Amino acid sequence: MSETTANKPLWGNRALQIATAVLVIQGALFYSASRGQLTPKAAPLSGFPAQVGNWHLLQEGSIDKETLDVLRADDVLTRTYVSGGTGANLFVAYFSSQRTGQSPHSPKNCLPGSGWQPSESGKVDVAVAGGEPIRINKYIVARGEEQSVVLYWYQSHGRVIADEFAAKFYLVADSIRTHRSDTSLVRVVVPVVQGNSELAVATGLEFAKTMYPAIRDYLPQ
Question: What is the pLDDT of residue 207?
Fold first, then answer.
């Protein structure tokens, strides 16, 4: 057996130990810093605009108590907006603190649990007004004959994060630097009609582009 081959298990264990130590240290720093945590005052999501650009409110949604108990968000918004006969659903879950285990549930984990299976996934950059393009998650999911386009991202202190691991690193950094751990999950769902997923994706991206400035300005900075 060569020296390189013999060292592989040792290096693998070493890397795992380092990664574990880093996570433990980060967790300790987070909970230590959280003792003096600052919780920003957030406006109720029910006051979010009923019309943004050419999109206007069609239906105010509701979430059953069982789902709310699992979600553990401090405030939730679920609405269907329409523009020119085209509809899109906006879901926002706001968490004032992640100190006691409250945190957003990633759609990529929740969707399969609801019977939706991804047929396509990736990240996409969206050009938005008043700033640099934002990078968000894009999924095409199916359940039986139904298909939908799902776009989502995490919104924290005016920052857009697509990656779940990056969100955790920012959580630790922000808890130390600003003593804040508040965050929001923003999700957009557009149904695929007559198998035209390209049109659904374009609709979802246009909706996200239009809504983002209002979401950015409404949630705590």
Answer: 98
With the CA atoms of 169, 170, 174 and 177 taken in that order, what torsion angle do they form, in degrees rounded to the nearest 10? 70
Give me the domain span that covers residue 206: 37-218
Q: How many Cα atoms are found within 13 Å in the side-chain-facing hemisphere of 20?
A: 6
Please indicate, yes or no, if residue 199 is contained in any of the structural domains: yes
Average pLDDT over residues 35-44: 79
> Total domain count for the chain?
1
Q: What are phi and psi of 82, to 5 degrees?
A: -130, 155
Average pLDDT over residues 106-131: 87
Asked if residue 205 has pLDDT above 90, the reply is yes
Residue 165 placed within a domain: yes
Contact of 50 with 56, CB cutoff 8 Å: yes
Using alpha carbons only, give the angle 122, 125, 126 rounded to the nearest 5 degrees: 130
Q: What is the DSSP string of 80-107?
A: EEEETTEEEEEEEEEES--TTS--PPPH
Identify the top-confidence range among 49-53, 66-70, 128-132, 170-174: 49-53
Residue 94 domain-assigned? Answer: yes
Identify any residues that bridge with 188 across adjacent strands, giving them in sequence order. 90, 151
| Model confidence, pTM | 0.83
Report the distance separating Cα 162 and Cα 154, nearest Å.
6
Cα separation of the two ends of the chain = 57
Cβ-in-10-Å burial (0-12, 13-18, 19+) of 75 comes to middle
